[in-house]
């Protein structure tokens, strides 16, 4: 039986959201909202895999929720909530801790990057992080997961976990009326658009990230117009004029990044942008990119601030989203308990 199409994705409430989150993920979330049932989560349980000050975490959860709405996600159409309010995420994550193999998690590049040299001192949660991520998706039997390129490996792991669960428990799954033996779908990554990997504005070989110590490396969604324009003007470039087609961007990471950002913000492709700017100097291109960035992102910051000034309203939206999410997750988690052999009342 084919699975009903359902979209799930999430962002961590750590630091402020930036242009990479917006172009790599959120723009796709907004598109999918028009055609699909979508569940968008603020993954606060993932956030505490590294230390978070409680008061800051609380604020960050509200701010990310405000950013979702400011960007165009409608809490009436889509389900917006924070992960810790739906206990089924943690319950399924435990089952998946017992499905995933140590060897699989040992290969995760994000863990290696985040744990760094001091691996012994990393939290167990940081290591098991991808299992919780698989649970986030599969507790709703979500079929499509719009993310940036850096989440690809985690999604492959989620597919492996879904496959191993279906396989290990095949007899029980069939006995419960899932005749083809497929209890969980293998969720598909949706990694699309011209900016699936937005790079630092200071170094085109490094990913734009909230943990980069230089604020000039990223455009935060809460930056005001002057700051956005300044960061674009100061972005690193190379001395050559722009090429006329995308193939000419090879070996020019800063140029490729800025062209990708322009394409994503204007809803076009790198080739279309280069057809216009090929042969021209960066100074001219950057002036137009600054103008476009301010037009598209400037209003977001003001709207995020407006929404966060009413925390009670945001908390109400999160509680409503959590109740709707929990109602979808409950029967699926109930089936999981039966399948693995737990007794429930
Ligand atoms: P997080 O919070 O690091 O990032 C949120 C989303 O933004 C994308 N992203 C980028 N895209 C392009 N260029 C960049 N420089 C860039 N930086 C971040 C990420 O790919 C992501 O889509 N593990 C996830 C959160 C998560 C999740 C999930 C996602 C938890 N459970 C279930 C999907 C499904 C994370 O840390 O994303």
Automatic annotation (TrEMBL):
Keyword Aminoacyl-tRNA synthetase: yes
Source organism superkingdom: Bacteria
GO BP: tryptophanyl-tRNA aminoacylation
TM ranges: none
GO cellular component: cytosol
Motif annotated as 'HIGH' region, chain positions: 13-21
Matches recorded under InterPro entries: aa-tRNA-synth_I_CS, aa-tRNA-synth_Ic, Rossmann-like_a/b/a_fold, Trp-tRNA-ligase, Trp-tRNA-ligase_bac-type, Trp-tRNA_synthetase
Keywords from the UniProt entry: Aminoacyl-tRNA synthetase, ATP-binding, Cytoplasm, Ligase, Nucleotide-binding, Protein biosynthesis
Residues that hold L-tryptophan according to the record: 136
EC number of this enzyme: 6.1.1.2
Catalytic activity of the protein: tRNA(Trp) + L-tryptophan + ATP = L-tryptophyl-tRNA(Trp) + AMP + diphosphate + H(+)
Annotated residues for binding of ATP: 12-14, 20-21, 148-150, 198, 207-211
Residue span of motif 'KMSKS' region: 207-211
Protein localization: Cytoplasm
Chief location category: cytoplasm
Quaternary structure and interacting proteins, as annotated: Homodimer.
NCBIfam families in alphabetical order: trpS
Similarity comment: Belongs to the class-I aminoacyl-tRNA synthetase family.
Function: Catalyzes the attachment of tryptophan to tRNA(Trp).
Protein name: Tryptophan--tRNA ligase
